[in-house]
Amino acid sequence: MEAVTKAWDTVDWERLQVGMKILSENIHHIQARVEAEVAALGVRQDDSDARKERLVGESNAYKDRTNKENRKLAIPLIKAFQNEFEGLLARSSAVNQLLLTSVDQSSICQDFRGKDVKVRKLKDKLAKLESEQDTFIENAVSEVEKKAELELNSRLAEITEERDKMKEQHDIQHEYPGEKLGHS
């Protein structure tokens, strides 16, 4: 228990609380940015889906409007658009993954904030335990002092009684110098 108490005494609680406050503010800022990015990602995804539908519709309309010979001429252009579209999907997927990683890091920060609450609770509990321990020690010291005082008073009473007896015997011997005490 003493080692734990010493370890807790070495913690700079004010510095830790300032750091936790800064971290909490950063978490709120990060959460706001993440929420904004998630919303923007949803808008971009909806826009991407609409554009994809439009592209498919335009492709089908082109197919219906043109003959096979003209479509063969457009195949390289269509493949180039398709490759660009697939590249955009890959980049979008990478951004989504990055955003999800950021959200995971944000949840770790929230977990850290939860740990801050636990640290505060532990600190309060430790202070309570220290207070209880101090009270227990004070009570124990007080009890020992009372017992010592009772024992001292008892011993003083015994010494005083012996002294009084010895004084009485001394006085009797000086009063009757030739007689021995206790013999008739």
Q: Give the helix proportion (percent range).
A: over 70%
**Percent of residues in beta strands:** under 5%
Main pleated sheet: none
Overall pLDDT: 77
The domain tally reads 1
What form results from the Cα inertia axes?
Answer: rod-shaped
Order of helices and strands: HHH
The total of beta strands comes to 0
Give the uncertain stretches in residue-range form: none
Pfam family, one: CUX1_N
Region (Disordered): 161-184
Protein name: Cux N-terminal domain-containing protein
Keywords: Coiled coil
What does this protein structure show overall?
The model has no long low-confidence stretch (mean pLDDT about 75). The longest helix has about 110 residues, at about 70-175. Helices cover about 90% and strands about 0% of the residues. It has one domain. It contains three helices and no strands. By secondary structure, it is mainly α. The relative contact order is 0.07.
Brief descriptors of the model:
about 180 residues, mainly alpha, about 90% helix, rod-shaped, Cux N-terminal domain-containing protein, coiled coil, RNA polymerase II transcription regulatory region sequence-specific DNA binding
Q: What's the short version?
A:
This protein has 184 residues and is mainly alpha-helical. The chain is 92% helix and 0% strand. Keywords: Coiled coil.
Write the layout of secondary structure elements.
Elements: H1 2-9, H2 13-65, H3 68-175
